[in-house]
């Protein structure tokens, strides 16, 4: 009888050890999955910024050609639009983040 109880205790001990190892392995697996997901997000963000850089270069090239052509009306419209956008952003952000003076 005593030998059977001893074997049962050993089996329970080994089962507990195995359970702990499986839990640790599960934790490592979840960490690997999280890292892979965040790496995918970083890759997507990098591609987005790369695409945006290419578009900005194209826009700058078109703007340079327009300015070189000497179309003064188009240049004045562009300058006006830039000034209006700057003022709207400046006062909008000042209103949102600056609040009023106390």
Describe the biggest sheet?
none
Question: What's the β-strand tally?
Answer: 0
Taking Cα atoms only, what radius of gyration do you get, to the nearest Å?
32 Å
The class by helix and strand makeup works out as mainly alpha
Helix content: over 70%
Low-confidence blocks of residues: none
Globally, the shape reads rod-shaped
Mean pLDDT: 84
H and E string: HH
Estimate the strand proportion.
under 5%
The helix tally amounts to 2
Q: Termini distance?
A: 85 Å
Organism: Emericellopsis cladophorae
Keywords: Golgi apparatus, Membrane, Protein transport, Transmembrane, Transmembrane helix, Transport
Transmembrane segments: 74-93
Membrane topology: Single-pass type IV membrane protein
Description:
By secondary structure, the protein is an all-alpha fold. The chain is 93% helix and 0% strand. The longest helix is centred in the middle third of the chain and has 68 residues, at 2-69. The radius of gyration is 32 Å and the shape is rod-shaped. It starts with a helix and ends with a helix. The model has no long low-confidence stretch (mean pLDDT 84).
């Amino acid at each position: 009888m005593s030998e059977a109880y001893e074997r049962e205790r050993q089996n329970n001990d080994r089962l507990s050890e195995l359970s702990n190892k499986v839990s640790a392995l599960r934790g490592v697996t979840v960490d690997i999955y999280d890292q892979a997901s965040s790496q995918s997000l970083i890759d997507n963000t990098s591609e987005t910024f790369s695409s945006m850089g290419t578009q900005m270069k194209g826009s700058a090239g078109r703007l340079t050609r327009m300015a070189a052509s000497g179309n003064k009306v188009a240049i004045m419209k562009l300058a006006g639009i830039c000034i209006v956008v700057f003022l709207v952003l400046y006062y909008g952000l000042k209103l949102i983040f600056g609040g009023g003076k106390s």
